[in-house]
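Thread: quick sanity check before group meeting

JM: Hey all, I'm pulling together slides for Thursday and realized we never actually wrote out the predicted structure for the chain we discussed last week. Dropping the sequence here so it's in one place. If anyone has concerns about the input, flag it before I start.
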Amino acid sequence: MSDLDDGVASVRYIVDDVQAAIDFYTNHLGFTVRTARLPAFADVTRGPLRLLLSGPTSSGARATPSDAATAGRNPVHLIVDDLDAEIERLRAAGLSFRSNVVEGPGGRQILLADPAGNLIELFTPAS
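JM (edit): ok, ran it. Output follows.
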């Protein structure tokens, strides 16, 4: 096992435009670029989460069957301290949401989509 695998969870997202994905995740959601091999690939991290952003020419995208190449329904789940403040900040940046705020016994959440349509769930736990 490599040092990167120690305590880090990696998720691969197939994206149309790697630079647009980098800009989205770093400018709006607090990720940091670890590696960028444009235009094919980049990986960005936030805490123990590593997103592998695979563009059309990357091996990850080329290995993905064509019937599974569209953005998925499984969102990355990011915990935020103040959901309302995050929604306001992201709307001010010109981003739109894919759902309304949903409230349940575990907390409140809303869905955002990256430029390729991959879902990100912003979640604030119930107190």
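AS: nice. The mean pLDDT is 89. Residues 18-29 form the longest helix (12 residues).
JM: adding both to the slides.
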